[in-house]
Amino acid sequence: MAKRILIADDSPFWRERFRAVLERDPSYDVFEAGDGSEAVQKSMKFHPDLVVLDYAMPVLDGLGAARELRRTMPKLPVMLCTADKSACLEDVARESGVPVVFSKTDWTEMLSFIRQELSSGPSASENYQPTVA
């Protein structure tokens, strides 16, 4: 059965590019949202196995969406991506229930995390260790 991944980002270009990368793996069924509110609504409707949230989105940002998803679907794996990753954002994200934040340029790291999280092994969010360049 295909794993369902929701990508929420206000940039159609980035969503489409990341979706294309993910869909190279036929075991992923990917769908999209343009803001955090839509991400929450689609998550309630489609029950994804993992959600990728952009940090800066209109209507409801990634952290707000993550908090709502944690409240309604506490076991749903959520990751945050941003153009401006910082230690401060990582701290705030953890407080919002998001264990990992990626720079939007870290395609390899994001894909590695997603593969690990969606495998049958231990939760990537609990055991994730980024590679050191």
Query: Tell me, what's the shape?
Result: globular
Number of strands: 5
Total of helices: 6
Query: What is the CATH first-level class name?
Result: Alpha Beta
CA radius of gyration? 13 Å
What is the helical fraction, as a range of percent?
40-55%
Count of the separate structural domains: 1
According to CATH, what is the topology? Rossmann fold
Q: CATH homologous superfamily name?
A: Response regulator
Major sheet: arrangement of strands: 2-1-3-4-5
Sketch the major β-sheet: 5 strands, parallel
**Percentage beta strand:** 15-25%
Unreliable runs, pLDDT <50, ≥5 residues? Answer: 124-133
CATH structural architecture: 3-Layer(aba) Sandwich
- Look at the structure and give the mean pLDDT: 88
Helix and strand string, N-terminal first? EHEHEHEHEHH
Description:
The protein is α/β, with parallel strands linked by helices and 133 residues long. The chain contains 6 helices and 5 strands; from the N terminus they run E-H-E-H-E-H-E-H-E-H-H. The chain has helices at residues 12-22, 36-46, 62-72, 87-95, 107-118, 124-127, and strands at 3-8, 28-33, 50-54, 78-82, 101-103. Strands 2-1-3-4-5 form a 5-stranded parallel β-sheet, sandwiched between helices. Helix 3 (62-72) links the parallel strand 3 (50-54) and strand 4. It is globular and about 35 Å long. Residues 124-133 have low confidence and may be disordered.
